[in-house]
Design a protein that fits this description.
The complex is a heterotrimer of chains A (326), B (308) and C (530). By secondary structure, chain A is mostly helical. Chain A has 13 helices and no strands. Classes of the chains: A mainly alpha (326), B mainly alpha (308), C alpha+beta (530).
Chain lengths: 326, 308, 530
């Protein structure tokens, strides 16, 4: 019911990639669908899966386009100084509010009369940072607990699955409001924490389903017979073979997190001054867009391009990883 | 089969308790004084504050409040809102709106989503495929409030194709536009899911066998591919229906539909515990049931999966 | 839930809309003489049990007080035929005979006394309880010890002499009592109300020009029809109307433009320029008496310096904010009283309200600067709060050199309790809309030592207010209130920023729309329907 990392409509909806079954221990129905989107049951592939995938990816133009856009956005985020001399919230004059593009301001000015170009440039960093770090943390949680739960099964798995269900049932806005109150600055760190806490449930389900599918494979049995420790089996044999669909979902997820952050801003519980982000800009622009379209167009362009690139990258990786589609 | 259902239902109990307790705790620790917020900027007499706090059990410690709440719940009493309405009345009124919206959105996902997915999946790599892939990706990339307001102003106000907001025109007219906006995301996912699934199945051995047997394309696709491809899609649609029933705060707000999502959002803002917990509880129940149904349905569709 | 009365207007400027162009659009299909107005959902429909202006939108039509406001904010007799006093303390009120409730019960002095007693009785937990606190005997109904049961449930200061006469005794002289009586909380209730007060809330019975047409449909609408037995001055010129509930002001505006409703009282600030352009004379602008302020927590030592507070006030470009966020529609504050209130003196605020970065910096340095993080508090109720706070923050950064500024955007439910518990650590947004149009109501609730949120104490201010309250004539009262105003401005614990301007809008189907800046808001009875 709650699917924060989806971004569009936080307090509703499941992630299709993770049609988790809220209470089954086997979870066939759910994860199967996710895996179908994510690239088929990747059980028992050869060790050269990643090599093949890379080979395949290199030939896809869509991969190169999205990679190029993402590289550009990353440069924008990490080195804003290369693009603008104006800092965040600097040289603003409310008497020059909402000026159209042109003259000193190539993107115009925003409501507070700040240079919009500078603000759009500075907006890249929080947007990208939140999108990537939330996904990485959620991925980490998913990999650790999903693997452990799926591998050992039994009571431990039951507890992990039930806790996941409980978090799944939490209204997104409620969780966000409560957590953000503990961090009155509503900064990037707090936003990351909120989105991770409310968004880890998706990937753990897929991870767990994959581990269950892989753990009885011949090579795992063989390793066990040879006396390998559980840790070694999980790390060397299960993880590499189970992680592909999760990685794909993670790539798709970055885009969702970014849109999610924008929606939180829209609901009035998101980032706030002195931070600038594309989500905040979109949100502010939405009431003015009939008379001042430039306020909406510029952040929307950057945000959509970034999210699209992540989604296309995810698509490309998925197709490359799926031997059936080659 | 029955043992499986029984086990699943038993497992639902801790999830149910855990979720309600977690939500109750979160509401409890929400900052602020709901009573103070009632009066806005105007002064509220201490005696009034005291009387209201007593009435809503706000002076009790967390655990006692929760136990009192659970006690009421088992007697069918979901509590009372701060403006004196029964939570059960509030929720039932709101739920009809949410159910109609959910159904509309879901039908869009089902019909348009699968339609687009099949169209694209059968022509992988073609212009149609690229269009569907690009279009759905774009929908996923745009935040819902941008989509909602734009649809409302362009399709509702400027072109006059749909009513702009409200429920006055009844189902389905009032719900078409919000349903489309709300369903657009699921629709995109269904289309992509169907597309991938169809494309994969077209390469499966049994399809090749069918072609080898000399069956027509229509028959192969219609009889074999679709049926197998739709399993994950139907699973997704099933679970998503449960999710849609949870309400949609943004869509409901933009289109002025008094549904459950708006109510939960307002109640969170007002720290109205009984409503938030009540709505979430019902949601958890709906979700557990839908999940069970989906898993069972899956077993029916795919005989390889058995429930013991 | 803040009682943001988004209704306002200049004293004289009462916007009677001119003739519409063509009769297209409009809420209903064939005209049945009724219209639809959109607003947010009310919380209660009993006048004494709400502080929401959206509730008053409805109750003003259902009920009639002893005294009501005319279009210019003067108190005129309504259900009363006379309100008299000799000492500003004991007031004798004559109830006009022959008035009826919607259920034919006669309106008598007891209808008022009983309703006031009920609202003032602490355990009934009526939100309007505090408005009765000046009446003698209030303390007995609301004991200090919150657990104790009050000894009585009758205000000793309210005495029913006979069916037509009410005698009210106050604790202290209060020259503005007649204006206080115009507040919705002082409406009468019929006997039927007390048998089941909850059911009554869903279908109230009043003595006003309109009556309920069916019960209140929560989150949807309240339908009102004309009450034939009404004998007062507000005789409806239409056949009834509906208040439709909206969760979002933006959507209300879209529906108005789509012709699905006929009237809204406040178009969102960001949409006003567009509305003026698209709707022409059907966009109805009006000045209001609603103020925004910046308050300082004086209990925090860092703000206990008048020069620092003045420096911050003078570093804010009020005109710039007005232009950027409110399209230049608002009025920049030049006094603690709005122009429509008797006692307003243009420029009373002087340099404190004038943007002067150089002088501000001098005062700031003189005060020894500011150490630590400057936290700015406001609620997330409206997006425009954050927009203007952003400009304020930028100004403080640029003009005073305060670099470490952070926002504290607090959820609505927490904002007011944060302030009343004095948990804020920096300047905060304060908003006030008067309960009744009197200088006293702008000054006393916000600056009086026992009532203000800033932790400011001033015997001088309190004394001047008391003198004004005891004054025999209005002119004399205003003189003292103005002196009190000067004290508040000199110390600047709470500085005024700007006064709201609101835009309503109407469809071509209706005309004669008047929205006053006071608690009576829309004068629905004057609306004509094509």
């Amino acid at each position: 019911m709650t699917e924060p990392t989806r971004g569009k409509e936080p307090p509703r909806h499941v992630d299709p990639e993770a049609i988790g079954d809220a209470a089954s221990t086997v979870g066939v129905g759910a994860t199967a669908a996710a895996v179908a989107e994510a690239g088929g049951l990747v059980s028992g592939q050869s060790a050269s899966l990643w090599g093949d995938a890379w080979h395949d990816l290199r030939r896809r133009w869509i991969f190169w386009i999205s990679a190029a856009i993402l590289l550009a956005v990353t440069v924008l985020a990490v080195f804003p100084g290369l693009f603008t001399d104006v800092g965040e919230n600097e040289n603003c004059d409310p008497n020059l509010s909402k000026m159209p593009p042109g003259g000193d301001h190539r993107f115009g000015t925003d409501v507070a009369g700040c240079d919009y170009y500078a603000h759009v440039v500075h907006g890249a960093w929080p947007t990208l940072l939140i999108g990537v770090s939330v996904t990485l943390f959620a991925l980490l949680i998913a990999v650790i607990f999903g693997t452990v739960g799926g591998y050992y099964g039994g009571a431990l798995d039951g507890v992990i699955a039930r806790v996941t269900d409980v978090f799944f049932g939490l209204p997104f806005v409620l969780g966000a409001t409560v957590i953000l109150v503990a961090f009155p600055d509503h900064g990037i760190g707090a936003m990351t924490l909120v989105l991770v806490l409310l968004g880890w449930t998706t990937m753990i389900r897929i991870m767990r389903g994959q581990v269950i599918a892989v753990k009885d494979a011949d090579y795992v049995q063989a390793a066990r017979l040879l006396g390998a420790s559980d840790f070694r089996i999980m790390r060397r044999h299960i993880l590499p073979n189970a992680i592909a669909p999760v990685i794909v979902v993670a790539t798709l997820n970055v885009g969702n997190v970014i849109a999610s952050e924008a929606t939180l801003d829209f609901l009035g519980v998101g980032l706030q001054y002195p931070e600038v982000s594309w989500g905040l800009q979109l949100n502010q622009a939405q009431s003015y867009f009939v008379d001042h379209p430039h306020l909406l167009i510029f952040p929307a362009l950057f945000l959509s391009a970034t999210v699209l690139s992540f989604l296309m990258l995810g698509d490309a990786v998925r197709d490359a990883l799926d031997p059936k589609l080659r | 089969m029955w043992r499986y259902i029984a086990r699943r239902l038993l497992q639902a109990i801790p999830v149910f308790l855990g979720t309600t307790f977690l939500i109750y705790t979160l509401v409890f620790y929400l900052p602020g004084d709901p009573i103070q917020a009632l009066a806005g900027e105007k002064p509220l007499s201490p005696s009034v504050v005291a009387a209201l706090r007593e009435h809503y059990n706000l002076n009790d410690p967390l655990l006692l409040q929760y136990v009192k709440y659970l006690g009421g719940l088992f007697q069918g009493d979901l509590g009372e809102t701060f403006d004196g309405q029964q939570v059960s009345d509030v929720l039932s009124g709101r739920w009809t709106v949410t159910a109609q919206l959910a159904l509309t959105a879901w039908l869009f996902e089902l019909v348009i989503g699968i339609g687009l997915g099949v169209w694209a999946g059968l022509r992988r790599g073609s212009l149609a495929d690229t269009l569907v892939l690009g279009g759905t990706t774009l929908v996923i990339a745009v935040p819902v409030f941008v989509l909602g307001y734009t649809a409302q102003i362009v399709l509702g106000l400027n072109l006059g194709l749909f009513p702009t907001a409200g429920t006055e025109d009844g189902w389905p007219v009032s719900y078409l536009l919000p349903g489309l906006v709300l369903g657009s995301l699921g629709l995109s996912y269904v289309a992509r899911l169907t597309r991938t699934s169809i494309a994969e199945n077209l390469r499966a051995d049994y399809v090749r066998t069918a072609y080898a047997k000399g069956l027509t394309k229509v028959r192969v696709v219609g009889k074999h591919t679709l049926r197998n491809s739709l399993i994950p899609v139907i699973t997704y649609l099933g679970v998503d229906f449960g999710a849609l029933m949870g309400g949609a705060v943004v869509t409901e707000g933009i289109f002025n539909l008094p549904g459950i999502g708006q109510q939960v959002f307002q109640s969170i803002q007002l720290k109205e515990g009984p409503v938030v917990v009540g709505a979430s509880t019902l949601l958890v129940l709906v979700f557990l049931v839908v999940n069970l149904a989906v898993d069972l349905l899956y077993g029916v569709l795919d005989p390889r999966i058995r429930r013991d | 839930m803040t009682s943001l009365r988004v209704v306002g207007g200049l004293t004289a400027v009462v916007l009677t809309a001119s003739l519409g162009l063509t009769a297209c659009g409009g809420g209903g299909k064939a005209s049945d003489g009724t219209f639809i107005a959109g607003h947010p959902e009310p919380d209660h429909l009993i006048p004494g049990n709400t502080t929401s202006s959206y509730s008053w939108d409805v109750t003003d039509e259902l009920f009639e007080n002893l005294v009501s406001l005319d279009k210019t904010g003067n108190a005129v007799n309504a259900a009363a035929s006379s309100v008299e006093t000799t000492d500003q303390k004991v007031w004798t009120i004559k109830v006009r005979p022959g008035q009826k409730f919607h259920n034919d019960e006669p309106v008598t002095a007891a209808s008022f006394a009983d309703a006031w007693n009920y609202a003032a009785y602490g355990p009934n937990a009526f939100e309007g309880n505090d408005y009765f606190s000046q009446i003698r005997g209030y303390a007995d109904l609301n004991p200090e010890d919150e657990k104790a049961k009050p000894a009585t449930d009758k205000l000793s200061g309210v005495e029913v002499v006979d069916d037509a006469t009410l005698k009210v005794t106050l604790d202290a002289p209060f020259s503005q009592f007649k204006l206080l009586l115009t507040h919705p909380a002082f409406a009468p209730l019929p006997k039927a109300a007390y048998t089941d007060i909850k059911a009554f809330d869903n279908k109230p019975i009043g003595n006003g020009p309109y009556m309920m047409d069916g019960a209140w449909e929560r989150n949807k609408q309240v339908k009102l029809k004309v009450f034939a037995g009404y004998t007062g001055t507000r005789k409806p010129k239409n056949k009834g109307f509906t208040w439709r509930s909206y969760a979002s002001q933006d959507t209300t505006y879209t529906d108005l433009r789509a012709g699905r409703i006929d009237l809204m009282q406040s178009i969102p600030a960001a949409k006003v320029p567009e509305a003026k352009r698209l709707m022409g004379d059907k966009a109805l602008g009006r000045a209001t008496g609603t103020f925004d302020y910046l308050g300082f927590p004086l209990f925090d030592k860092r703000f206990d310096n008048a020069d620092l507070r003045k420096a911050i006030s003078m570093a804010i470009d009020r005109n710039g904010v007005n232009k950027a966020v409110y399209g230049g529609e608002y009025t920049v504050a030049d006094s603690l009283l709005p122009p429509m209130i008797k006692g307003h003196r243009p420029g009373a605020c002087g340099e404190l309200c004038t943007y002067d970065p150089t002088k501000a910096k001098q005062l700031y340095d003189k005060a020894g600067g500011f150490k630590g993080t400057l936290e700015l508090y406001f609620s997330n109720a409206q997006p425009s709060y954050e927009q203007w706070m952003q400009i304020v923050a930028n100004s403080l950064k640029q003009n005073l050199g305060i670099t470490d500024i952070q926002f504290r955007k607090i959820p609505v439910s927490d904002y007011l309790s944060t302030l009343s518990d004095k948990k804020e650590k920096g300047p905060y947004r304060q908003n006030w809309e008067a309960d009744y149009p009197s200088a006293q109501n702008y000054l006393e609730p916000q600056w009086h030592s026992d009532k203000n949120r800033m932790g400011w104490t001033s015997k001088e201010f309190d004394g001047l207010i008391a003198k004004g309250n005891g004054a025999a004539t209005d002119d004399e009262a205003v003189k003292f209130y103005n002196q009190a105003e000067d004290v508040a401005l000199r110390e600047a614990p709470l500085v005024p920023l700007w006064i709201w301007k609101s835009y309503g809008g109407r469809s071509t189907k209706i005309d004669g729309v008047t929205i006053t800046p006071f608690a009576n808001g829309l004068l629905a009875h004057e609306v004509t329907v094509k």
